[in-house]
């Protein structure tokens, strides 16, 4: 599953192509060019940062370009699915059953995690399920090869080069085997799929064996995930997502992640919870993943932590909703959303919006935040319900 490594806005402009300087570590070849020369520059930088030349050699000696990694990096079609399609695909009866079983099996470490970091068991369990099916599917890409490939590629070297350096540090600590450690195509490792830098910074020994082994130890993975989510800003004791019903006379232009009201203000407008109580004093955004006729959710401040984990709106909303299900919420009311756009239509819409001066990012057929914001603005200008859900009717109007 693609994650924060790909979507974090911190790295949106990181790729600086064709920087082939040599000499001091600060001027080592950053990306592209001869692969062995590139690896020599990585070693030089690692040693300058205090890592041993032996660990660098041990890590990089057999590294190779993996063309399958580059292919995966260019094709992220899963994020073209709608919320209903994606959530129905990934939140299975198997995952619900095993999620409940694992929360019971590891109740002790979950309790410790919540005590230390304030992160509830359902939140971590949902990530654990979606990332690796509770450790069953952790990825079969050689981690060093994946990181070296993406660091050498000039699309996002400033993201992946530090991860490759961090992998050398993990090798030096005895926590990564450069020949045999495997994981996701983007270099994430373990049951909750974390990048080497995050493992070094936030890795926790949950089982007391003196090592952080996110591939083998569920206790390590749970505690580490809790520490990482806490670092991202999780607010202890607060909700993250809540399904609601909405009146059909609502001002749809007030919906979306970039607009907030207090829970009490939403309630005064007729927004009602399907489960639990609305948190009256917390700010919340009203999310309509498939428009005003589909499911509706209030997203509280903790929802933003999901966006730090992964910038895909569909993934984060699904993960947050899944966590509410594990916490006892009912299955959502799917409603009857209006027909959306297929891939070709979505690209056509993005092109039209771009020509009108909107910044929708890449013309990729993905309904991301930029496209949603542009759609909502255009809907409002055209006098259409401004629920940010693009339909054939909107495309025809444009």
UniProtKB/TrEMBL annotation:
It comes from the Bacteria. GO terms for molecular function: peptidoglycan lytic transglycosylase activity. Residues 343-398 form the Peptidoglycan binding-like domain. Residues 1-28 form the signal peptide. Residues 35-323 form the Transglycosylase SLT domain. Keywords: Signal. The keyword Lyase does not apply. GO terms for biological process: peptidoglycan catabolic process. Pfam families: PG_binding_1 (PF01471), SLT_2 (PF13406). SUPFAM superfamilies: Lysozyme-like (SSF53955), PGBD-like (SSF47090). NCBIfam families: MltB_2. This is Lytic murein transglycosylase. It comes from Roseibium marinum. The lineage of its organism: Bacteria, Pseudomonadati, Pseudomonadota, Alphaproteobacteria, Hyphomicrobiales.
